[in-house]
Amino acid sequence: MRQRSLIAITAALAAGALTLTACGSRDSGDKGSDSGNGDGTTVVIGVDAPLTGDLSAMGLGIKNSADLAVRNANKKEFVKGVTFKIEALDDQAQPSAGQQNASKFVSEQEVLGVVGPLNSSVAESMQKVFDDNKLVEVSPANTGPALTQGADWQKKKVRPYKSYFRTSTTDAIQGPFAAQYVYNTAKKKKVFVIDDKKTYGSGLAATFTEEFKKLGGKVVGTEHINPDAKDFSAVATKVKNSGAEVVYYGGEYPQAGPLSKQIKAAGAKIPLVGGDGIKDDTFMKLAGAEATGDLATSVGAPVEDLPSAKQFVADYKAAGYKEEYSAYGGYAYDSAWAIIEAVKKVVDANGGKLPTDARAKVTEAMQSVSFDGVTGKVSFDEYGDATNKQLTVYAVKNGAWVPVKSGTYTG
Amino acid sequence: MSGIGPPEPGEGTRAWDGPRQKGHAGRTRAALAGRCARHRRTALSLAAAAVLLGGGALYATRPHPPAPTRRPHPQVPYPVHAVDVTYLGARPAPAGAPPRSFSLTVLLSVASGPPVTVTRVTQPYAALSLVTEPPAPFRTPADSARKITITMHVTECEKAPRNAELPFLDVTLRNTRAIQTQSFILGPRYAQDLSQALEVACSNRSR
User: Do A371 and A268 belong together in one domain?
Assistant: First the structure.
């Protein structure tokens, strides 16, 4: 009996062992962003973006990409003794929510840097909160020139906040580049300009319009829309009656998609052109099949084409995020990595430990950060703007954004 | 019929067993043996898969004969990623240039990779034409820079953009990997010098 029991137990153990090995699950439960380097210091990188609502496709891509940077830093033990974590807060693309989030990040001592936000209008509400507390923020997506160069940037550039940086380029370049393409390459001389009255949209429309007129183009009509609206039939009729050859829209894809569709439905079979705010696959879903020929400029080169981005694209896929990295994923990764690099500088300069005034030191260190990132060389000029200024014009072809022209600002 | 056989039946053991045992012990043994067999099959399947994968990997990574067509080396950068074009300044048009001409100089640098050939330089405005010195195509090796003189001729003053903010040059670049056209936006100094040169060229015309 004992022998039989022994055999049965042995068999059970063997079966169990086989179950644990050959039949075992490979689910490691790796949380990535909080897998640490032992019992060292934890540094939190805040992420502020619209994680819900119309713009969440871009916001979630930012959050996931920042998370990926943190995972990689922890895996490589990039900063000895420091484990990075992200804390993501939803600003719903609202300035008031963004400001509350900024206050929350400031109140948490472990937060040494923030990636975000997406919207320039949200950034405006956060900048002072961060700057008063010397907490560095690096936006992957804000393009409003005033954020780094001051409200009077067209006449005299003055940096308003030393704690604000961005990895994307600005509308001071994006708007004119779009105007050059529309006028010279697409040969459209009459434009109808529409914006959503927000900081980003109206600013971009203004820089486009100024350059378009300087080139000899004619603005045959202007309109402002309500960002909460979905019915643009009245504006579409005005566009149709204006004789415009092209529509320029300063705003984001949740409105740009229906606007494009309704303009075509009104009988004006003309392209709608916008900036990086409309360059998302959701635009095509909202605009329908007639969006073919619509155009968007976007800050940066197509991530898929950059040799520096191959690892990012592969890692993102391997990490199994549900959402796409979207237009700003590469820039969000680089923003988070810039914070990680700045923390490393501070820790290295302080004998391997964070100093008591870590936030101020990290903000200071950010100015001289320089590394080869996903989007190319990452460093910042005297205003906190990215030194790498690339732009791409995309056209809708077969239901996808296809790059048709790319430019590099070398001034 | 009291023998229960080895816990891990050998090859063929199960297939040649007698009729299925009745009773609890028999069922337990049979169930256990069944489980073991399933695990064995799983393990065998995994082993087979591993052999197949290993074989596949060995096959995939076997030494290849040289490809019949030239394929770019994976480390070769795209030409636009290897090249930078920056603005140097304005200079007088060369002797013999047509009226309403002016010259601007740029520096083309190749940072890495194989030599890059400039096959074409254009600008986007219909009212202007240009020639370069050296004339395209010309080749620049890595870790070197070449000064290029762009001489523009105004063909239609009425349509010339007098004060564009961000004028650019379109440069077509070729290396062993690809041929690409990139717009180089040369910045405010270039914009200012271009505007001034256009102003001068077109005001001379009216004199």
Answer: no
